[in-house]
Amino acid sequence: MIPQLYNKATLMLIAGEVSGDHHGERLVRELSALQPDLQFVGIGGTGMRDAGVKLLHTIDELAVLGLVEVIKNYPAIRSIFFDCVRYARKYKPSAVILIDYPGFNIRFAKQMKKIGIPVIYYISPQVWAWGRHRRKTISKRVDKMLVFFDFEKDFYTDTGLDVTFLGHPLVETVDPQMDKTTFLRANGLQQTKPVVGLLPGSRKNEIINILPIMIETAYMLSLKRPDIQFVLPIGQSVPSDKIDEILQNTHRDKIKQLRLAPRQVHETMAYSDMVMIASGTATLETACFATPMAIIYKVNFITYLLARMLIRIPYIGLVNVVAGRKIIPEFIQHEACPSAIAESVLKHIDNPQLMADKRHELKQIRQKLGKPGAVKRAALEIISFLAVSCKTTATKPEQTVS
Predict the structure, then answer these.
(1) How crowded is residue 126: how many other Cβ atoms within 10 Å of its Cβ?
(2) Average pLDDT over residues 363-373
(3) pLDDT of amino acid 64
(4) CB 296 within 8 Å of CB 276
(5) Is it the case that residue 273 has pLDDT exceeding 70?
(6) What pTM value is reported for the model?
(7) Which domains can be identified in the chain, with CATH numbers?
């Protein structure tokens, strides 16, 4: 039974990246389906806007990768931060839902606690990787934590924080829109030749740092194995002009079997024999298709040094974190050299048994991500939380998003 709210509740959502916008959009749609009177305001992208969120600011104003880049953009980010704080103080939303983006959102949670606004964290910050000491801080600022990984619930066990494991929403979204035969035919690829996908990420900084490495690696591979076919999918949110610029300044013209596949990211993940991929959630999406991969991570050098000081886990790829061991090779910073990556790709493609073993291990990762329905479970948890919270504010006048 779905609890009924006592007043017309307004939820403030804060997402600072494209992935957060996607998660926020799906959450808002589920919440609206369960409680049509809910109102939404906050920071997001086109997805959240189209789902009905009144945007105070957009993710385009916040989406920077790396500590150095954040420092450069700090004045603008600080202005947005306090603009949202002022809005929350004036209009008193029923609750704030924070979506990942820890540098901004953990501080925002502190301000909300001062104001007395309940805080729900949807997608736990990855403090298990870089800031275990912040568990207690988060537990003091957050009222409800909704997590995607089962190990995250255990991570907060001794803090007293109310944590619910949902499973991961991506198990429902990794759905290619065409079958393998159609995908291969649409991109001029041959069924009998190996296919290697290039997935450099969606952020501008990721593409600048990682795509040239992937193109150089593809060039080396094409010299050793001319039969290998390469696919570079271009997602909807990816800056295609930057990709074009990088392709013009690399060996792209020397790689005869490189195909660009607009909006065919999941197809590339599913139907490639192997992919080179930027570290991030995309590694889990690829794992859902049991496609072997090589993980690449490269950022500004100062950012990397600072990250090395902070990160306390032995792996950087989420697929390895979930596995609890290194099942996928990682090429980080200075190790992300084309020759080493090319050697790893060839080692896999030339060894059918190794490829089969990797696929088996990746299928186990898929099972650890939980059952379908995570977003609906999140919506029900939030509404139940609001039903209790609203009992104390039932006499307040109806709120209107301004």
Answers:
(1) 16
(2) 92
(3) 53
(4) yes
(5) yes
(6) 0.78
(7) 10-169+373-393 (3.40.50.2000), 173-368 (3.40.50.2000)
Paired tokens of 62: 């916040």
pLDDT tens-digit map of 13-51: 999 888 899 999 999 999 999 999 999 999 999 999 999
Between 299 and 233, the more confident residue is 233
Per-residue buried b or exposed e for 257-289, using 16+ beta carbons within 10 Å of the residue's own CB: bbbbbeebbbbbbbbbbbbbbbbbbbbbbbbbb
Q: Which of 399, 216, 398 is nearest to 298 (CA)?
A: 216
